[in-house]
Amino acid sequence: MKRLRFSGNGIVALIATAIMLISGLQLQAQTPTEWKKLKGDVTLYMANDLGRNGYYDQKPIAELMGNMAKTTGMECVLAVGDIHHFNGVASVNDPLWTTNFEQVYSHPELMLDWFPVLGNHEYRGNTQAVLDYGKVSRRWMMPARYYTKVFESKGTTLRIVFLDTTPLIDRYRENSEKYPDACKQDYQAQLDWLDRTLKTANEDWVIVVGHHPIYAETSKAEYERTDIQKRLLPILHKYNNVAIYACGHIHNFQHIRMNGDNIDYVVNSSASLARPVKKTVGTVFCSPADGFSIISANKKQLRMSMIDKEGNVIHCIEKNK
After folding, report:
1. What are the residues whose beta carbons fall under 8 Å from the beta carbon of 107, sequence distance 6 or more?
2. CB–CB of 307/293 below 8 Å?
3. Does domain 33-320 have CATH number 3.60.21.10?
4. Among the listed residues 83, 80, 76, the one whose alpha carbon sits nearest the alpha carbon of residue 125
5. What is the rounded distance in angstroms from the CA atom of residue 117 to the CA atom of residue 49?
6. Alpha-carbon distance 283 to 74, whole Å?
7. What local confidence, expressed as pLDDT, does residue 16 receive?
8. What is the pLDDT of residue 162?
9. If we measure between CA atoms, which residue out of 313, 318, 298 comes closest to residue 31?
10. CB neighbours of 11 closer than 8 A, spacing ≥ 6?
11. SS3 sequence of the chain
């Protein structure tokens, strides 16, 4: 019988390899026991850039959302735009409602309220039909193009402010052939409403969501961010009560903090098909993974956990009081 002989360097290499394998297993060992730690007094899911008719990773991620919700619980899903690629919907009876939404998000744990916002792809179609779908589906909760909702449980209050960002960008409003409803919206009325809403917001936590980013690394046109920055940032900073601005649109995960700014800027990845990403000014974390996020809050802490398609928590934004 041959004996295996190892040099000192060989033993060190074997130990290092073993540690790497164990670490890798620990990173991937996301279980319902660990998922339970994501639960707060208030727990919400956020998903966006969904509509691929169940293709790519849309259906597996939808099933993961349902499976995780069995452990974490959740109040609702924030559906932050581009529910329907590529040209929105024509009516409340458009077949895309079945292939992009009803048949994909069919898990029993997902049969609860969905709070949507309009994305740029919705603006290629009939945006009023997206609002009106609530007359067809019990879980589609969209009272207006922009609105707010307060979630309260066990004494914790969390306000979500839902924005309609497409009309805030000049190029969308100017291209009435491709985005016919964008130029019809009074964006100043929305900004005035946002100011009034934040002025009186006294909840434990306030999160503002919209489809388009304020800051992000992307190949998309810079004017999208500069228009949003010019119009939203003065109001978001005015009352010093916004914890997070979260968006979609870029199809990857990004967490950005700017010097001297108390707001965390979060890009939530696509729940179907992601894109590459690299660091930019203020990047705390970025990943080309697709997936969704879980928002959880108690009186002392707000967390937004980024979840990849394997159910791993790959990054967590935390705000503490």
Report:
1. 62, 63, 65, 66, 67, 69
2. yes
3. yes
4. 83
5. 11
6. 29
7. 40
8. 99
9. 313
10. none
11. CCCCCCCHHHHHHHHHHHHHHHHHHHHHCCCHHHHHHHCCCEEEEEEECCCCCCCCCHHHHHHHHHHHHHHHCCCEEEEECCCCCCCCCCCCCCCHHHHHHHCCCCCHHHCCEEEEECCCCHHHCCHHHHHHHHHCCCCECCCCCCEEEEEEECCEEEEEEECCCHHHCHHHHHCCCCCCCHHHCCHHHHHHHHHHHHHCCCCCEEEEECCCCCCCCCCCCHHHHHHHHHHHHHHHHHCCCCCEEEECCCCCEEEECCCCCCCEEEECCECCCCCCCCCCCCEEEEECCCEEEEEEECCCEEEEEEEECCCCEEEEEEEEC
Compute CA distances 263 → 239, 241, 283, whole Å.
12, 9, 13
| Cα–Cα distances in angstroms (integers) from residue 199 to residues 165, 192, 232, in the given order | 20, 11, 14
Alpha carbon distance 78, 160 (integer Å): 9
pTM: 0.90
- Angstrom distance (rounded) from CA 267 to CA 10: 44
Q: Could you tell me the two tokens for 54? A: 């169940």
Q: Are 118 and 164 in contact (CB under 8 A)?
A: yes
Could you tell me the mean pLDDT of each successive run of 10 residues in the chain, 321 residues long? 44 40 44 91 98 96 97 97 95 96 97 98 98 97 98 98 98 97 98 98 98 98 97 98 98 98 98 98 98 98 98 97 94
Taking alpha carbons only, the member of 101, 111, 117 closest to residue 160 is 117
Question: 246: which 2 tokens?
Answer: 């979260």
Q: Quote the CA–CA distance of 211 and 97 in Å, as a whole number.
A: 19
**Alpha-carbon gap, residue 319 to 313, rounded angstroms:** 17
